[in-house]
Amino acid sequence: MSMENKLVVDNIFHSDKYDSLTALVSQLHTLLYKNLQTSDTIGVDLPDADFIEEVRTVTRQTDVLLHFGTTLRELKCVIIDESAIRDHTVFIRYEGPKKLCIIDASIPHSELQDKDYKSIKDIVKAFEEHVNALSGYFYELERIDRYCTVMEPAKPSFRDDFRRILLDDRTWLHVEVTSKGCAANIHLLGHSEHWHDKLQSGLLNWDHDKDIVENITTMFDIESFPVKDKSPTTNKGSENSPEEVVCNICLCAELPEVPGVPQPLCQNPQCVVYFHRSCLFQWLVACSGGRPPVFGVATGSCPTCLHPTTCNENDK
Predict the structure, then answer these.
(1) Domains of the chain (ranges plus CATH)?
(2) What is the DSSP letter of 255?
(3) Which of 272, 274, 309 is nearest to 293 (CA)?
(4) Distance between CA atoms of 141 and 164, rounded to whole angstroms?
(5) What pLDDT was estimated at residue 119?
C-alpha cells in the first residue's frame, strides 16, 4: 500500500469526525476499493474490502456490536443472548480473505474457538446458538455468585466453570458447573469431619429438580453463607485492595501464569495461615531434598506451625 494511503488510514483512526463505527467503516470501504483499482493485492496490514463491507452490513442490520481492536485485523464482537440481559464477547482475528479465527471468548473454551470461519455472520450464528444453549449454565453461576461467598476465582466470570465457596475459615466447597447447568466434581478443600460427613450424605440425596444453591444449603443445613474472614495474612500495602489475602511463602496474592488464590491448606485446624497450592507444594518438595513426590502428593511440615501436612500437586 502506498505511503499516501497509509497516511489516510492513520488520519482515519486519529480523527474526531468519525463518531460511529458505521462512519469509520464507510471511509475504510471507500479507501480499500480505491486501492483495489490500482493494485491486484492488498497490503498485509489491511483486510480485504469484502470484510470491511461485511462489518458495515452486520453493524447496520443486526443487534450485534462490533469494535475494531488495535488493528483492522482484530475485531471485538459483542453478542447478546436470548435473556436480552447478558452479553458475551468474542474476539476475532482476520487471517485472510474468507478466513477468520477466534482469538478469545468470554465463555468456557469450546470447539467453536478452534475452527476457522468464512464470515462474521457465520461466527455470530454459531456463537448465538451456543450461548443460548448455555442458559442453564449462566443461571447456576449467577445464583452461586449472588447467594454464596465465592473465594475463587478471585473475579468470577462466565469463563470460569467452577466456584469455590466459603463454608468456614478453613473449609471451601469446590463445585464445577457443566454446560447444561448441572453440578459436577463436588468436593471439599480443607479438613473438616463436620462438613465431610454432611457432604457425603448430601450427595446421596441430591435433588436434581432444585438448583445448585438450594442443594448446597440443604446439604449443609445453612441459611446463609459466612462472610470472608480477613484475619489471615493480608496485603496492607496495596492501595486498591488493602485486605487482600496473601500467601505466607511468596507474600503475594496472585501469581503470574499460575491460577489460584491462597487457601488454608495446612492440616492443623489451629493454623490460620494461607498458601498458594503451588508454593506449598514446591516448599514441601524442596524440604524433602527435591525428591519427586509419590502420586503427586508432597509431604512434610507446615512452614508456619511445623505441623505435619501434605499437598497435592493437582488441586482437583
Answers:
(1) 3-133 (no CATH), 148-220 (3.10.110.20), 231-316 (3.30.40.10)
(2) B
(3) 309
(4) 11
(5) 94
Contact 261, 151 (CB under 8 A): yes
Amino acid at 269: P
How many CB atoms are located within 10 Å of the residue 116 CB? 12
Residues of the chain under the 50 pLDDT cut? 1, 36-44, 236-242
Question: Can you tell me which residue has the cell 496472585?
Answer: 254
User: Would you list the DSSP string of 160-227?
Assistant: --EEEEEEETTEEEEEEE-TTS-EEEEEEES--HHHHHHHHHHHHT--TTS-HHHHHHHHHT-SSPPP
Q: 306, 254, 250, 260: which is closest to 280 by C-alpha?
A: 250
Q: What is the DSSP letter of 113?
A: G
* Three-state SS annotation for 263-287: ECCCCCCCCCCCECHHHHHHHHHHH
C-alpha cell read off for 43: 497490503
- Cα torsion 238, 241, 242, 246 to 10°: value is -80
